[in-house]
Write a structure and sequence with these properties.
Length: about 325
């Protein structure tokens, strides 16, 4: 019985820890967690359910941790499904940008979106709460639904009311009003990023003569690495990493890189465009929303890479070339 109690306590602790772990990486925003400084209604609800589950275990009623665990599972499942739905919508909307000269910016931003390991921590925490409860009830031969167990019915009512209330609010209230606690608050940041780019409709033919000269004489792209990376949630995917150094005397607000992937014969078979440096005025900002100043070096964050999921299986791992195809000078102030 003590082991079950410890399992329930561990599950509650992991659920709380998971609220502060990254669940997704978004362009310009960086890593996002569910707690969001205490302003996310979903994060607060999960925190409350974890506390209830832990309190049940501390009072040797770990059998009743099933209900907060079930409520947390319902909220997490809903939020994960909404995230996947919105990301799918956003990726399909990229087709609307066909022909736009800055479509590569939006597509590259979408390419940087990655689900993170925080989901696993949250799922393990919820799983331990439910498992410890079910195991305890089996050992004492008590049914899951006991009509004469008033404390269990109270905990079940509170947990289910909290779960249904949060999901209902985010689905019909918070999401519609755009409140910070809405289920769409985190995923909706992605379309907002696209809007902040203010993509123009005029055609461009590439960098100007001045920009092309600066690229040739002052920008250094090196340490190119193209290989299959192990992603925690996406499995084994093609990815790209590189560094860029600004050896000139101008500050850059944007650097555009094209990576061409080759087959075993060295023939090009696919390409991807990335914008490792992009400063968005009057938009979302983060540590990535910084210009490339003279003598500065840009590189990806540790353990991060640009994914290239659309690269076909005929690609020969490691065979690729990278070229800086565009820049934007920072305005002189």
């Amino acid at each position: 019985m003590t082991n079950n109690r410890n399992l329930a306590l561990g599950g509650a602790a992991l659920l709380i820890v998971g609220l502060f772990c990254p669940i997704v990486t978004l362009p310009f925003l960086g890593n996002i967690n569910l707690f969001n400084d205490g302003t996310n209604l979903i994060g607060l609800a999960l925190f409350a359910l974890a506390v209830v589950g832990g309190a049940m275990a501390l009072n040797n009623r770990q059998r009743d941790a099933f209900w907060p665990g079930l409520g947390a599972a319902a909220i997490l499942g809903y939020h994960f499904a909404m995230l996947q739905f919105r990301l799918s919508q956003m990726r399909s909307s990229m087709a609307d940008l066909e022909g736009n000269p800055f479509a590569g910016v939006a597509k590259a931003a979408v390419g940087t979106i990655q689900l993170q390991w925080g989901w696993l921590v949250l799922a393990i925490g919820v799983g331990l709460l439910i498992y410890a409860s079910v195991k305890t009830r089996r050992e004492i031969e008590q049914p899951l639904f006991s009509a004469d167990d008033t404390p269990a019915k109270t905990v079940a009512g509170v947990a289910m009311l909290l779960a249904v209330g949060v999901i209902g609010w985010t689905l019909f209230g918070g999401a519609a009003k755009g409140t910070p606690g809405g289920a769409a608050s985190m995923p909706a940041a992605v379309p907002a990023v696209r809007g902040s780019l203010n993509l123009p409709s005029t055609e461009t033919t590439g960098p100007s003569a001045e920009e092309a000269t600066y690229i040739r004489g002052n920008l250094q792209l090196y340490d190119l690495e193209t290989k299959y990376y192990d992603s925690l949630l996406d499995g084994r995917v093609p990815g790209v990493n590189f560094k860029i150094k600004n050896n000139g005397n101008r500050t850059l607000n944007r650097v555009k890189v094209r990576v061409v992937f080759q087959d075993a014969m060295g023939k090009p078979i696919a390409e991807e465009e990335y914008n490792p440096v992009i400063v968005v005025e009057n938009g979302y900002s983060s540590e990535n929303n910084t210009p490339l100043r003279p003598n500065y070096i840009w590189q990806n964050e540790r353990d991060h890479f640009y994914n290239a999921k659309s690269v076909p299986s005929e690609w020969a791992e490691g065979k690729a070339t990278a070229t800086i195809t565009g820049i934007e000078f920072a305005p002189n102030r």
